[in-house]
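Hi D.,

Good news: the full-assembly prediction came through. Inputs first.
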Amino acid sequence: MELPSTHLQNASDQIATLPGIGKKSALRIALNLLSRNKEEVEAFLKAIQGMKENVRFCSTCHNISDDLECSICSNPKRDNETLCVVEDVRDVMAIEATGTFKGKYHVLGGVISPMDGVSPKDLNIETLIQRVEQGSIHELIFALSPTMEGDTTNYYIFKKLKDHSLVVTTLSRGIAIGSELHYADELTLGRSFQNRQPYHGAK
Amino acid sequence: MELPSTHLQNASDQIATLPGIGKKSALRIALNLLSRNKEEVEAFLKAIQGMKENVRFCSTCHNISDDLECSICSNPKRDNETLCVVEDVRDVMAIEATGTFKGKYHVLGGVISPMDGVSPKDLNIETLIQRVEQGSIHELIFALSPTMEGDTTNYYIFKKLKDHSLVVTTLSRGIAIGSELHYADELTLGRSFQNRQPYHGAK
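Then the structure:
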């Protein structure tokens, strides 16, 4: 579909580069922005520019932050001995939303994936090893996605740290709470049998 | 979910105001923009700003245009006697993509919808009546959505123009080409019976 304006075309093409936005949605979004008044569009652009200019990555854990150190790393109430390794800042937010983890994080910024050209040196693995070498960490929790790439990354880090006396754990896999047994895939159901837990009666 | 940076939060909130983008998608888009290099983000912002500053609306038909008059209105090969009334610039693009219509357009900018606070004076109806009053238009084609609001708008314009000698038509409704009969809704199937066409054999 040919657009009647090159400026509209440019904006629409740029919007279509965003994740999850196709050509039709991009045009819809461009026309929506076009129909807004000048101040609204300026606020929109300024918010993105402000984010790009001001957001930093925590120098310790690589989580997103407004300051040099993120609010989790600088919180004295958080447990310094437990470190949770995640792929992405969104994983930090998801785990924080559960309210169950009181330790600190290390954001890798991805997982090892030779297919996508992501090698260990593209990830924040070196700084993770440095944190472990400082000696205060007692337990390392792998919370990467249960994919081939996630497992590869777990194993790579595990091997790198094998000379340190660390408890290394990984999140439990099993049937999701509230889901029906017969909808679970074979791998998950199989794993949940292997890792079955003692039953303590109703809680 | 609380975001770890107010700048990220602002950008994410602004992105979530776009049509079809929820909170989770907005965060995904914000993080994607954050991971891009500076030049890419600048090009993105510039394209939207450029669109907002430079796109005009054709003074005749209200279609989107880079110039004072759009490429359709200023095209001497287009038929001046046939005017197609549409709701939105996207409808112009969709009809142009069919390649079957050689007349000109008039973009209303919406349909009459008291529920959404859209009254006739919010739409480009006055300029439509002026174009008809200039006398060169022979046929007016209503190509609005087949909704209550679209029908109301058709009827409003029809009444306003009843003293002019105009052929007024509307797009045919019926079973979509390539779709199966038993999937058509009752209204559409009923209408396609009422408006059945003479059969001319294979074309």
